[in-house]
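Milestone M4 deliverable, item 7.
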Amino acid sequence: MNTVLVNMFLSYLIGSIPTSIILSKFFAGIDIREHGSGNAGGTNVFRVLGWKFGLVVMVVDILKGTAATLYISQFQFFGLPNIEIFQIKILCGVSAILGHVWTIFAKFRGGKGVATGIGMMIALSPIDITMAILVFILIIKITKYVSLGSMIGISIVPISIFIRKNLLNHSIEGFNFLIWTTIAMSLFIIFTHRSNIKRLMNGNENKISFRKK
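Output delivered:
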């Protein structure tokens, strides 16, 4: 059996842990997917259960991506694989994202992959994800749309990587594999936000509020 495939499967399982669903059922006795926007992500938990629960969900979902990328990728069940470790890290991170979006523990209805994607990029390229988070915060500050901030923010990652490599001459490990992976990840996360895009176009997307109700 291929070690990389086992690592990817374990990463998928880690990503599949339905943080928001577990938390909402344990502390509030509800299925978060039946409330608010119907999404099993931190933003919906923030809206429905408050910022404390939302923050816990976001942190755990970020850690899922980081753990899969940094640690699950290091496991060697069947000897050394014939592939670079940096590429294994990326594959494990992507597997965790897929697990978060299509969780095997909740009938394949999970979140939208943003927090777990952030966790993956924290492990792979903290500079670029920092730039993305700053843009994310700026967009939310201006528009109050978390979905818009998420889509634009995650799209900044491959742009930042490209600029650092080609304009600033920074050394970036596994540049070619990383740039194409982050482009694909950005497109995928935009795809998971397709219902948000429709609501944004129709002018009825939910805005985030930080005021106490």
